[in-house]
Each structure stands twice: as structure tokens, then as C-alpha cells.
Amino acid sequence: MARAPKTWKSVDEQIGILQDRGMTIDDEAKAAHFLRRVGYYRLSGYWFPFRQFDDDGKPSDTFIKGSTFTDVIALYLFDRRLKLLAMDALERIELSVQVDIAHLLGRRDLFAHYESKFLDKDFVKEPGNFGYEGWLEKYHSLVKRSKAVFVRHNLEKYGKLPIWVAIEVWDFGALSFFYKGMKGKDKTEISRKYGSERSITDWLRSLNYIRNVSAHHSRLWNCNIVDSASMKGFTEPLKSLKNERPFLYFCIMKQMLDVICPDSSWGQRFKELVDGFPNTGNKAISLENMGVPDDWKEWELWQ
User: Fold this and answer.
1) What are the two backbone dihedrals, phi and then psi, of residue 132, each rounded to the nearest 5 degrees?
2) What confidence tens digit (pLDDT) does each residue in 41-75 have?
3) 299 and 237 in contact (C-beta within 8 Å)?
4) Per the domain annotation, does 180 fall within a domain?
5) Rg of the chain over CA atoms, in angstroms?
6) Cα-Cα-Cα-Cα dihedral of 134, 140, 145, 148, to 10°?
7) 91-116 pLDDT per residue, tens
8) For residue 59, what are the domain limits?
9) Residues facing residue 63 across a β-bridge
């Protein structure tokens, strides 16, 4: 039987609920500001680790001793900056791989993305949304939705978009989907540019997941990466990381950015952000929840 929905609560009532459950709120005006601008429900994901858990691992409504609203906000702001860093990296990765695909296939046919002969046979045969037919349907919807002048110009001139124009309307999902469907030798040619002897299909799928989490303002720092990459092909120290934790994918971003823009300060900014991870008095949260090992800054990748 469905439970009755919770009733509406004013911001003052929300503050009272948190205090009754054991959270310290030193500055109620500041707390009210965040509750109004960020929202009780969204912030609840950041105070969840501060809740007490019973012996069966079930969370209670009571916060552990020493939990403060200040620490919750510090964690929220850390996660916000983490998502901004992710989006910064993913924008460059998306553009770079798009150009790789367009350059590689465009030299064979300017409309290569319309030609199934340039794609993996199994991908072409796969029915519905999981194969080339599904990709084409999504691509056509992206073209139709676009209001860009260059799209209209190329459609009027050629009737369809050359591949180096078509990539401009792809989103990250369309990119990762198309790369998945490319022939093995073509995927290998691109993946080797980024230091991988295996196809980076898994990488792109997982990075697209992180991109969606970040773009929709969801919690990233300790989220479970549902579309996790296979650990095959990784060597130490990355091989020792958990593929359901975000840190592995920031390592992948760093590896790809070292190729795309080797002089970028992105890696340094990431290290500085991690160094500023909230240090709570009750140790309710830790970088281990994000999948970060103790010795990560000693790795050559992060030098």
C-alpha cells in the first residue's frame, strides 16, 4: 500500500526538522538561504552520509554527533566545483573525439555517417534503439531540432550534412553511440591517440554518464557510476581503482586531456580541489567514498 505523500514545510520548519534530528545550524539565515536557493531535497543527498545507520545498514532520521549544516554546504560546494571541472574536461574530450571521427571517416566519404559500409556489421544489424537504425533516428532528431544557420545552409546546399558538419549537432550521447558502432580498426586508431590499445567505447559511455550527472546538477562526488567501464586493458595503478567510483573517470579525463591540451592547468586544479575536501569533525565523509586512494598524487599521471 502506497504511503501518504509528505506535507509541504516552510523553510523555518525545515530548519527545525534538521535541528530536531541532531544537526547543528549556527547560522540559520545562511541555512535558510541555501534551502531556498538549492532546495531541501537536493541538499538531502549531501547530508545523507551524516545520518546514523543501524546494525543492518539502514539509515535513521537522526544525524551522527557533530553533524553541522556548515559541513553539508562545504560538501555541496565541493561537489559543485567537481562537476564544473568534469564539464570543462568533457567539453574538450567531446570536441576532440568528434574531430577524430570526422577526420578519419571524412577522408573516405563526406557523408560517411550515412553509409553503413563504414560501420561494424553487428552494429548495422542490431535492431531498434541499440544499433545503427536507432543512432540514425536520434541523429535526425538532433538535426531537426537545431536552429543553427550552418545546418540550414548545408541542408539547402547538399540535402544532408557532411560528417564534419554533422558532428556539430551531435551531443555526447550521439558521439559515444556512433563510436561504439565504428569498425574495430577505426576505433583502435582513435583510441591509441589517447593511450589505450583497447577501444575507448566504455570510456565514452561512462564519461557521457558523468556528463549527464553534472549537467543535471545531480550529486557526483560519491555517486555510483551505473555505466561503469570495464577494467580490462587498464594497468597499475588505475587497475586497482573501483570502476563504480568517480575517481577512475577523472583519471581517464586527465589521460585524455594530456593528449588534447598538454599545457592545461586542469590537473592542477583538480588536485587543489581534492586537497580542499571538507574535513568534518565527525569523519562522516572521506575521499575513499569517491574512490580516491591515499597515494594518487604520487602517480605519474598526476605529476
Assistant:
1) -60, -35
2) 999 999 999 999 988 888 899 999 999 999 999 99
3) yes
4) yes
5) 23
6) 140
7) 999 999 999 999 999 999 999 999 99
8) 11-67
9) 51
